[in-house]
Amino acid sequence: MADDNMFSVYGRMTALPGRRDELIALLLDGFRAGGDDSGLLTYSINTAFDDPDTVWLTQLWIDKEAHDATTRSEPVAAVTRQLPPLLARQPEGFYGHAVHVHDRTTE
């Protein structure tokens, strides 16, 4: 399953030493601020075994327009403005279209 319009986001954020859990909590606040009808289909927040300060994000949206509208909304922007004091460096993001999506929970 994949719709030609599905939009994917992959990102990496590096927290200041010892601030990773605060960063994760703030990211969760941001996802919640977007609301249930934002067009965000699924997301994951991941940590690496060998890097205690790095957080990887994966998001799947119904389309780029839903992503843009949600991330520019005031509730999400208010959370986003709180991120910089927790970061050791500028976040990195990569964007694309989902080619294949498989949801094992619906089998």
UniProtKB/TrEMBL annotation:
Pfam families: ABM. Transmembrane segments: none annotated. Residues 7-95 form the ABM domain. InterPro entries: ABM_dom (IPR007138), Dimeric_a/b-barrel (IPR011008). Coiled coil: none annotated. This is ABM domain-containing protein.
